[in-house]
Amino acid sequence: MTHITDGELEAFLDGETLRSRVDVEGHVRDCQDCRRRLAEARERRRETADLLGGVPRRADPIGFQDVLNRARTGGGTAEIRGSTRSRRFGPLPLAWAATILVSAGAGWFARQAVVRAPVEAPEGYLLRVQTPEEGRVSELDRTAAGAERRRVESESGAPPPAAEKVVAKSREREEAGAADAASGHPGQMRAEEAPMCLRITFEARRGATMADLLAGARELLSDTASGPAARPGVDHRFGEAPTELRLPVPGRLAGGPVSFWRLQARPCEADPGATVP
Amino acid sequence: MAVNWAEVYEETAEDLVRFVYRKVWDLDAARDLVQEAFVRALSEEPKNPRAWLFAVARNLARDEAKKAIRRRKREEILAGSESSSAADPVERLEGERRATRVRRALGTLSSRDREALLLRESGLGYEEIAAHTGLSAGSVGTTLSRARQRFLRAYEALEDS
């Protein structure tokens, strides 16, 4: 067996696999020269790590929240140096931080779900989320008015008034048709002329982490995909703006760090939903 | 699949600070640059966040090098005035000398060797180092071995001088 090269020894010590560990270990066991070189390489690594590993620490370590805050303010590197740091990294407006956070996940969300809703939807009107990959659609409206409307529409088989005004493109009709079939509520949703993309913002209590918020985003999608029955007590309704939907936090997130959601449906062309607002 | 940026931050930020610090020699600047890299990542949503962050941080560090030198001097002055009453002056002086030697020893390496070494000391694997430096993954070990030897030789020479 040939001797082990310096690079192979280095890779061996780094846990990389340039050469089988069994080969190296076997060779080192039998070869005094390579055993010595391995010991030297190990010592060099220790010394190098000792010299390069230590970085001065500050008492105020930066956290991810600082990054979110900085993303919010949109500041450049030069702007936050020196005395401006403490001002710009002050107490966090968590709702805004959460907005930024969701925007980080918005690309995912926008890829996963498209909301199609009547632009002039009256309060309590149905809004559904479709997950293209799974072809599932669910209702978000659980108001009494919405429930009554669903019941009437289901019995009559007629589309809702707002939907009658919608002129959908053929592809969107097909998608809406497939979605209706999947939801078991035919005629309750119609595509708009332009697909609506979903953007989420939400407020969070102090201490909420990005993991909490993204998990919440996933849960929301999961919730809306699985249907309202999976989340009893969740009140979905439109807020002040016709294309805005406010959602109290469902299920197990209640009592957690995330306090509520707000969904905004906008035309995809105008708002791809994957950028920081 | 969505990137869990909180996790990426937790796993990467410290390594990035260490990596950038060894380029700009200014802790504040390093922290700022790392933050800046993450801010950019949030809007870019790169497929490989860790590799992307290191690449962006490296470029930011390069762009900021001259400013970093000035900031370092300022910080050293501040740190000196803050710590002079608490720290042992001899110990502090020795720490500063050591940092200077490290900086100079790194400066003797070729840019590729230095980059590979700093990336490795920041926790990157061979494939990642290869992607950042243009080396083949198979030659990273050799490069690192050479870089360590030259770095330590240079450091020892500076100690003796």
Task: Calculate Rg of chain A over CA atoms.
Answer: 28 Å
* Quaternary structure: heterodimer
Beginning-to-end CA distance, first to last residue of chain B = 55 Å
- In the sheet with the most strands of chain A, the strands line up as 3-2-1-4-7-6-5
Strand share of the residues of chain A? Answer: 5-15%
Number of helices of chain A: 10
Task: Identify low-pLDDT runs of chain B.
Answer: 81-86
Mean model confidence by pLDDT of chain A? 47
Rg of chain B: 17 Å
How do the helices and strands follow one another from N- to C-terminus of chain A? Answer: HHHHHHEEEHHHEHEEE
User: What's the SSE pattern of chain B?
Assistant: HHHHHHHH
Proportion in helices of chain B: over 70%
Account of the protein in words:
The complex is a heterodimer of chains A (277) and B (161). Chain A has 277 residues and is an alpha+beta fold. Chain A contains 10 helices and 7 strands. Chain A has a 7-stranded antiparallel beta sheet. In chain A, β5 and β6 form a beta hairpin. The C terminus of chain A is likely disordered. In chain B, α1 runs antiparallel to α2, α2 packs across α3 and α6 packs across α8. Chain B starts with a helix and ends with a helix. Chain B has 161 residues and is mainly alpha-helical. Classes of the chains: A alpha+beta (277), B mainly alpha (161). Chains A and B meet through α1, α3, α4, α6 and α10 of A and α1, α2, α4, α5 and α6 of B.
